[in-house]
Amino acid sequence: MTDWVKIAEDQEVPKLKIDLNADVPATTTTGNKDNEADVADPAETSLLIKILGKGLVNTKQSLDIQQKNPNSPLHSVKTFEALHLKPELLKGIYAMGFNTPSKIQETALPTLLADPPQNMIAQSQSGTGKTAAFVLAMLSRVNVALDHPQVLCLSPTYELAIQTGEVAARMGQFCPEIKLRFAVRGEEVDRNSKITEHILIGTPGKMLDWGLKMRLFDMKKIRVFVLDEADVMIATQGHHDQCIRIHKMLNSQCQMLFFSATYDKEVMDFARLIVSEPTIIRLMREEESLDNIKQYYVNCKNEEGKYNAIQNIYGCISIGQAIIFCHTRKTAAWLAAKMTADAHSVAVLSGDLTVEQRLAVLDRFRSGQEKVLITTNVLSRGIDIEQVTIVVNFDLPVDLRGNADCETYLHRIGRTGRFGKSGIAINLIDGEKSMSVCRAIEKHFQKDIIYLNTDNADDIEKIGN
Ligand SMILES: Nc1ncnc2c1ncn2[C@@H]1O[C@H](COP(=O)(O)OP(=O)(O)OP(=O)(O)O)[C@@H](O)[C@H]1O
Predict the structure, then answer these.
(1) Measured CA angle at 429 (ends 428, 432), to 5 deg
(2) Checking DSSP bridges between strand 63-67 and strand 279-283, what pairing results, if any?
(3) Closest atom, ligand 1, to C-alpha of 49
(4) What's the rounded Cα separation, in Å, for the pair 201 and 182?
(5) How far is the CA of 248 from the centre of ligand 1 (A)?
(6) Domain ranges of the chain
(7) 405-435 pLDDT, tens digit each
(8) Cβ proximity of 288 and 410 under 8 Å
(9) Which positions fall inside the Helicase C-terminal domain (predicted)?
(10) Which CATH number fits domain 287-464: 3.40.50.720, 3.40.190.290, 3.20.20.70, 3.40.50.300?
(11) Residue list, ligand 1 pocket, CB within 6 Å
């Protein structure tokens, strides 16, 4: 078993079997989704990426920093010592194996720890050290002489809250006087008691119950409010409303910290609306390039024809490893069954699997036990499988209106050709509609998608070279 699955297991993966969506409105979980476009649940994806993360991701992207408050100090630090933390916290950081701050930490920590406290809206890609940054801020702000909650941290799901709590527990291991409590389902408190822990980490529903309905702590005494996975929180209806209710009850002096790997425009506009005078740290747009990927299209009559094309190129695609993308779970299951019946060894990853099952599938694929992975859009951005050389679009990605979804195309074929290696993308076309989608993609990226005849052995040989 590879290390990362071991790590995942250590992180109590069995717990993940508990309904992941329990804190998410039911609309995201109901209905038969086999025939619909299979899309990733953002909170699940986030958890998956977090568990998969082997360590710190070094991003080459630059950060764009905007400050609303001209008086706030903005400088970056190159060492953790320069932050003048409590020695016990510094010891905790080193015990976690952190030697130097990551880029987001360098930039964000001086502002996060500054006095008077500054508000922040920060974006940085998954695995770059955001959690560690805000957890450090949370721990630093606690006054242990007071026995009431002073820090609230909201996560979209039970599992993500537990992950954050584990980071806080490890980082604060030499500060035993700092007390932390989870506000998640299953945690019960006596109605007549008061919460005395300093830090509460949990989901919005439970936090509202404890703070507003049961009045187990005083929201006005909260000094730091962290919204983790802010994009998911703000974009998910139920969470959105609950977060606003919590936010409204906070003191205007409370430090507001929003963290997320992505922010679309509406989410950022909303964040700016409710966070006053924030320092905003954002990623600069990544240069999007398909330069090292050769793209082909194959004309097929129908789904059977697409299957034949795959049969013809199977020898070629299984030299390295390939990912085949389908639009729906049903197509993915159909294709997998057919290929398996033809004695090809394939793995399937679609949205009906639990996070735990997805981890197991990815582990087998990464370790090379299967050469071909059939999937849908649930295998989304942020999940790297370095050894993939060929991506096949069994169905081209389209939006709800059936138009070319160029962004998804880029993310899908970006699974190959990573780190400057060359990759191959093969698009299976059946009929005029998918041809026009293919042309639209070609036009969008201004890069030729070349005709490939999979009935011709010479043509097939060409793709491998
Ligand atoms: N300064 C550091 N030095 C070494 N490792 C670090 C450092 N900061 C964080 N890490 C490690 O890097 C990994 C990713 O960090 P973290 O979980 O904080 O990232 P993140 O940006 O919050 O990711 P996500 O978006 O998935 O939540 C973790 O394993 C963490 O322990």
Answers:
(1) 170
(2) antiparallel
(3) 26
(4) 5
(5) 30
(6) 43-283, 287-464
(7) 988 888 788 666 555 567 889 999 999 999 9
(8) yes
(9) 292-460
(10) 3.40.50.300
(11) 49-50, 53, 55-56, 98, 101-102, 105, 124, 126-132, 261
Distance 345 CA to ligand 1 centre (A): 35
Positions in the chain whose pLDDT score sits under 50: 1-30
- On the question of a common fold for 43-283 and 287-464, the answer reads yes
Closest CA to 64 of 326, 242, 280: 280
Give the tokens for residue 122.
Answer: 């920060």
d(CA 280, CA 119): 9
**What is the spatial distance between Cα 19 and Cα 331, in angstroms, rounded to a whole number?**
26
* Predicted confidence (pLDDT) per residue in 211-241, tens digit: 999 999 999 999 999 999 888 888 887 888 8
Q: Whose CA is nearest to atom 23 of ligand 1?
A: 127
Q: The domain 43-283: what is its CATH number?
A: 3.40.50.300
CB atoms within 10 A of CB 455: 10
Amino acid at 275: V
Evaluate whether 74 touches 66 at the Cβ level (below 8 Å): no
Buried b vs exposed e over 355-384: b needs ≥16 C-beta within 10 Å? bbebbbbbbbbbeeebbbbbbbbbbbbbbb
CA of 172 to the centre of ligand 1 (A): 16
SS3 content of the chain, % helix, strand, coil (to 5): 40, 15, 45
Nearest to 385 by CA among 453, 322, 449: 322
Residue of the nearest CA to atom 15 in ligand 1?
Answer: 129
Among 47, 49, 98, say which to mutate for ligand 1: greatest number of ligand atoms within 8 Å of CB.
Answer: 98
Quick one: pLDDT at residue 338?
95
- Whole-number Å distance, alpha carbon 286 to ligand 1 midpoint, is 20
Q: What angle do CA 216, 232, 114 make, to 5 degrees?
A: 65
Q: Which amino acid is at 296?
A: Y
Separation of alpha carbons 440 and 396, rounded Å: 11
Nearest to 158 by CA among 29, 31, 44: 44
* Strand order, beta sheet including 423-429: 346-349, 372-375, 321-325, 388-393, 423-429, 293-299, 450-451
Measured in angstroms, how far is the CA atom of residue 430 from the centroid of ligand 1? 44
Measured in degrees and rounded to the nearest 5, phi and psi for residue 131 equal -55, -45
